[in-house]
Amino acid sequence: MIAPSIIALVAIQLLSHGVKAADLPPGAVSRMTLKSPLSDPAAKIVKIKHGPYTVPANGMVNNAMTPKVALPCTDCYITAMQAGLEYADGTEANIDTGAWLHHMVLYNTGQKDAICARKSALKLWPQRIFSSGNERTLARLNANGNWGLPVLGTDTFGLLTELMNEAAEPKSLYLTMLYEYVPASTAGYKAATIIEMDATECGDSELPAKEGVYEYHSAEWVSPYSGEILWVIGHGHDGATDVNMLKNGKVACNSVQYYGLEPAFVAPGAGEMPSVDNVHQLNDSGHAHGGASTSMKHISNTAVCTNIGRLEKGDKLVVEGLYNSTKYAQMAGHGEHALEPQMAISFLYLGLDQGLSITPDTTTPVRMPVEIQGNIPTGFGCPGLPVYLIPNQLSAMMAFLGLGTGSACMQGGVNMPNLGSQIVSQT
Ligand SMILES: [Cu+2]
């Protein structure tokens, strides 16, 4: 018998826009739109446009920090999330027009991060709830049962955004968040959380690029939590073939990185892109890389894992990023580095065994306990530096709270405390 959740997931894939599900490679999922079919009769989809961000010609908006943005809902469970990038007229902004959603991180300062809170002296590290690179992968929490990320009225979402413009004129861009949610009163829903495994652990996620075949591993993390593994997304940068999550030494999620499955993720040729592909004239089997007059494919989709079983207390998790620079060209660096830094991150949404339902008429937080164990030194903070001087995403969160990781106190970010948000409801 096929579980109803699988049928629902297949239906979502078949009916979503973008690449037809039948054309998607193994594990890849279609993106959500405002018109996507709902996973639950009680669900709604809402889109929030954050911006505008003005990105200079051939330039970037570096880690723009907005400590408070609109919530999609309150007393509710988020059942799916997806980031996007748009122009003012609502059309997609992507690599084919030089616009990159370099990265975004959404966090909840009302809650604590499952992994990194224990690393700060006051246990105040905010909960990272969603992150995306330009591949814009859907995160779905209820593919495998009635789970969602709880949002209470006391929660505050903050947003960190880094955008890149490879066109010769400035661009005005909007970061979009699409949320599917159900009211807290929806029967049967329980609280999920996110475990973010990063090869730099609670660092700035950036790893030096190398040439050829190489890989990165995180340190082993021993889970103090137990529950259903709901959805896992692997995030890497150009050059990555796979981002795997290992459980107790075995690959539990193989997130294959797919390149250029949609035209929007293919850069125009003729030197528009400062890629090593163009410089080195690399060729790989079956991909149209090569001379300076050809286009370059970038990561457009990642395999996700759902229905892969449970996480038990004591299970050991590791994320590994596998890279091959001759198979997929890496991005040329913009600063002092010849190549852009790489990443190896797994976003694991976990349906907690101890996850209780929200009681709508109370504001009692019903979250998991934050792990407090081990003897990890606290950073020295970034004394005297305002938030906008700190580009590192995690340091920015810490600085926002008056703390610091002690690892990345340098100049570069921008503070956008009054960034606009427009809420676009489902039609
Ligand atoms: Cu990244």
Bound molecules: copper (II) ion
Straight-line distance between termini: 35 Å
Q: What's the overall average pLDDT, rounded?
A: 78
Question: How many helical stretches?
Answer: 3
Question: How much of the residues is beta strand, in percent?
Answer: 35-45%
The number of E-state strands comes to 24
Number of separate domains:
1
Question: Which structural class fits the helix and strand makeup?
Answer: mainly beta
- Rg over CA atoms, rounded to whole Å, is 20 Å
Mass-distribution shape: globular
Order of helices and strands: HEEEEEEEEEEEEEEEEHEEEEEEHEE
Helix share bin: under 10%
Report the uncertain regions: 1-18, 270-293, 359-393, 399-412
Largest sheet: 11 strands, mixed
Keywords: Signal
Signal peptide: 1-21
